[in-house]
Amino acid sequence: MKRNLGMLALIMAFWFTISFITNILGPLIPDIIHNFNLSDLAMAGFIPTSFFLAYAIMSIPAGLLIDRFGEKPVLFGGFLMPFIGTILFACMHTYPMLLASSFIIGLGMAMLQTVLNPLQRTVGGEENYAFVAELAQFMFGIASFLSPLVYTYLIRELDPVTYTAGKGFFIDLLADITPREMPWVSLYWVFALILLVMLIAVSVSRFPKIELKEDEKSGSKDSYLALFKQKYVWLFFLGIFCYVSTEQGTSIFMSTFLEQYHGVNPQTDGAQAVSYFWGLMTAGCLVGMVLLKLIDSKRLLQFSGVLTVVLLLSALFGNKEISLIAFPAIGFSISMMYSIVFSLALNSASQHHGSFAGILCSAIVGGAGGPMIVSTIADATSLRTGMLFILVFVGYITFIGFWARPLINNKTVKLKELFKRR
User: Fold this and answer.
1) What is the tally of structural domains in the chain?
2) DSSP assigned state of 79
3) Where is the Major facilitator superfamily (MFS) profile domain (predicted)?
4) CA-CA distance, 113 to 229, in Å (whole number)?
């Protein structure tokens, strides 16, 4: 693996970029509502919906593009589309353009994640798969932790009330090209700069030919039809859907809830809470590696579900101090759910693993459905009631720990499956 360290570092930079851009929506929602004068939360909920719908739509076509054109063109296209999307909104900062931008970014991110999983296995070698995947997970989490902090920094530096020229070339440049009343738009210029660097890196790099393993290939039409007839396929599909709904429904509306019910500044303490949410999720994944060697995965899923219920109720009905602790802690409690449900699903099928994995990955559309359900209920009642519906998602995930079929391969989730990225 030593001779491929440079390529591995580049792949880690790709993962960092993906996470840095895609997990910033939570802190932005209050600004979006305020600056675009949105009448309800459902209008704000359309933004993650447009992103995750594009993600679900593009996942399978991305695999076909890899087969036809190879890895490098798909990687380049995967970075080019978000670059175009961020530039469009940075230049034309309207609500319809933000929706279009989110959709375009989602298309590109789906392409990137489809090609990066097998690419990192090829570069790192099968024998180092778990280590490389763990490192990718770590980079993904670090970027999710840092992006809200960068947002807070830019808001503070570009605040029209306190900003004065001469703070530095980069800040002054952002101040010149960013609307004074919308300093958060500067984040899109930062995205564009990072994506431009990634496009240059892809252009000058040579990538190895990917040979897909059996569980990474899309199956035939008959394999999909056979799977669609199995009840457990739909049950596990719903499990992944509920997990992504829980993750996004919590992270996206957390800052807005803290602002509405506790008067927390969404640009500082609210953004910090979202940052800690992703940071604790990363820590939870590392702790999960140890726990999965000691505890049956289904029991661990049950415990995670119960803990998440307790934390969510504390966050929604506790005082300000409790909410500021409980909301980020949910990131830790749900950190192992996706990997466990995904692995339980694959280990419950004796064949067609590639097709089954594709079906499960398409359940990421929960990132569109979850926030939309929460925001719609919130508009009809209250945000607290809307977020209370997340308990339904968590309850279903917890129930999987009781009815899931015995694992075919072994008692605990394999490390290889633990680090499969969605």
Assistant:
1) 2
2) H
3) 7-413
4) 28
